[in-house]
Amino acid sequence: MKCDLCPRKCLVDWKKxxxxxxxxxxxxxxxxxxxxxxxxxxxxxxxxxxxxxxxGCPLHCVFCQNENIANGTVGKEIxxxxxxxxxxxxQEKRANNINLVTPGHFVPQIVKALDQARKEGLTLPVVYNTxxxxxxxxxxxxxxxVDIYLPDFKYMSPVLSxxxxxxxxxxxxxxxxxxxxxxxxxxxxxxxxxxxxLILSGTIVRHLTLPGCMADSMQILKYLHDTYGxxxxxxxxxxxxxxxxxxxxxxxxxxxxxxxxxxxxxYAIDIGIENxxxxxxxxxxxxFIPAFDCEGV
Length: 297
Prior knowledge:
Radius of gyration: 18 Å
Distance between the termini: 26 Å
CATH topology: TIM Barrel
Number of domains: 1
Mean pLDDT: 93
Structural class: alpha/beta
Low-confidence stretches: none
CATH superfamily: Aldolase class I
CATH architecture: Alpha-Beta Barrel
Shape: globular
Number of helices: 9
Number of strands: 10
Helix content: 25-40%
Order of helices and strands: EHEHEHEHEHEHHEEHEHE
């Protein structure tokens, strides 16, 4: 199979063990599978989200918080049968959902694993947690398998997306991918119809605020609200954490100030965004980044 799952369209031959930009072959590779408590409240809840962190990523943002799994240097290769078992083990641990993190380059295998897991008793909602650098065709493969989409919308500016993620087409790609996600899920549905409860289906679009990129952030929020209104939830994140690899990007080598974040939240309110999440407290800490030590794999 020559891989064209993501917009990079490397067309590497998996059967020959070739690796594309994501750094992976057809062999599933997972860095962590455990209860995760740091997602939006309607996903983590009290019991935690059953997060499965897949190794590799086609985007490679210069500020990546999960760099060691994005570049594929950590993780363990597993069989499809082991992935099925992982899903069922997370259900036994009373996870609120199965949360697939950066899974796009393994979609065909994941679909097979979900088919088998459901035959063996998996009943949890499935979350697809993605950078949104996805092809529409790949997202269409997930219809009927994913209940909750959790996509990023990182940039509107092609200048920024080229500089920080080597993807000048990011906004165009993300818009199309998110449109397909919303088409599949429709308006969000919560347990007992109450928004303070766990989400059962729907799309929550995340935006991570970057230092010095406030105008771009505002454009993203306006686009999402103008396009989808109350069909989606928008999660405005302030947890950007400068790591040790930003020497070439000194403008990113700081955290978002409280004033910057408050300005963006006020803007969201002013343009009419009502369905959303904001972060409070000291969320911009490396301690919020889990250890990718193959726990649960």
